[in-house]
Design brief:
It comes from Leptothrix cholodnii (strain ATCC 51168 / LMG 8142 / SP-6) (Leptothrix discophora (strain SP-6)). This is Methyltransferase type 11. Keywords: Methyltransferase, Transferase. It holds the Pfam family Methyltransf_25. There is one protein chain. The protein is an alpha/beta fold and 223 residues long. It has two domains: 1-31; 74-221, Vaccinia Virus protein VP39 (Rossmann fold, 3-Layer(aba) Sandwich), CATH 3.40.50. Helices cover 37% and strands 20% of the residues. Strands 3-2-1-4-5-7-6 form a seven-stranded mixed sheet. Helix 1 (3-17) packs antiparallel against helix 2. The longest helix is centred in the first third of the chain and has 15 residues, at 3-17. The protein is globular and about 45 Å long. The termini are far apart. The structure holds S-adenosylmethionine (SAM). S-adenosylmethionine is lined by residues 53, 62, 66-67, 69-72, 95, 97-99, 102-103, 118-121, 124, 146-148, 162-165, 169.
Length: 223
């Protein structure tokens, strides 16, 4: 258990959101029983529940910029991917901060050429790898690494972010994405706390959001 990280997170919530929000966060994190989501019942996987970062084994100093684990809703992700209007078979899907890998399972099923998840919490990366094996998702891999160090592969990309980290890490990710020798690029960003960084990047422009999933903001490459 990382008490220093827990204290930092609580202080930040207190400062940014006030006492009531901090209390709600503590109750949610201490009292949350592992939820067996409908997705897991159908697929025999383990992707549910909340996992605060202070409970996990993370070797990176960027833990202080990270957000707890909470999975994306399958239907929201499918809506966002369909909204791209692309043939996904030529694309690589990348989830930076993939947690237990629910998005990777969905993306593999939707026919992406390659699916990559990056997760810095050892326990979550192990669960994600196990989930991929259980579902025999052979086009997908999980890298146990810090997203700030991830170098994007060549070719057409869909980058997925579920509000995984704050500006200092996102800035490094954006620098790597800008430098990537990529073809067409999309970024799907759920609950986009740092949307302004993408809006002012100079190489991305707004693509919109699916009507059924307004939390899913989408950008596309424009340079
Ligand atoms: C809100 S969860 C999203 C999980 C998954 N992307 C999904 O949508 O189902 C954010 C995840 O980002 C991970 N994370 C935060 N900062 C990270 C970093 N610098 N490198 C890798 N993973 C990170 C957390 O451990 C957590 O699992």
């Amino acid at each position: 258990m990382n008490i220093e990280l827990l204290t930092r997170k609580l202080m930040r919530t207190l400062r940014d959101d006030g006492v009531a929000a901090a209390c709600r966060r503590v109750v949610a994190q201490l009292g949350d029983p592992p939820e067996v989501a409908d997705f897991d019942r159908r697929h025999g996987t383990d992707t549910g529940g909340l996992a605060p970062l202070w409970r996990l084994s993370i070797g990176s100093p960027n833990a202080r910029h990270g957000e707890r684990y909470e999975a994306t809703d399958e239907h929201e992700l499918v809506a966002a991917l369909e909204f791209l209007g692309e043939n996904l078979r030529g694309y690589t899907f990348i989830d930076l901060g993939c947690g237990k890998g629910r998005t990777l399972l969905v993306a593999a099923r939707m026919g992406f050429a390659q699916v990559i998840g990056v997760e810095f919490a050892r326990e979550l990366a192990e669960i994600a790898t196990d989930n991929l094996h259980r579902q025999q998702a052979s086009t997908a891999i999980v890298l146990h690494a810090d997203a700030a160090d991830f170098v994007f592969p060549h070719g057409d990309l869909v980058l997925y972010l579920y509000n995984p980290f704050s500006e200092p890490v996102l800035q490094q990710v954006m620098d790597h994405l800008r430098a990537a020798d990529a073809g067409r690029r999309y970024v799907i960003y759920k609950r986009p706390r740092c949307a302004a960084m993408l809006d002012t990047s100079g190489f991305l422009e707004r693509h919109g959001h699916p009507p059924s999933a307004p939390q899913m903001a989408i950008w596309r490459g424009c340079a």
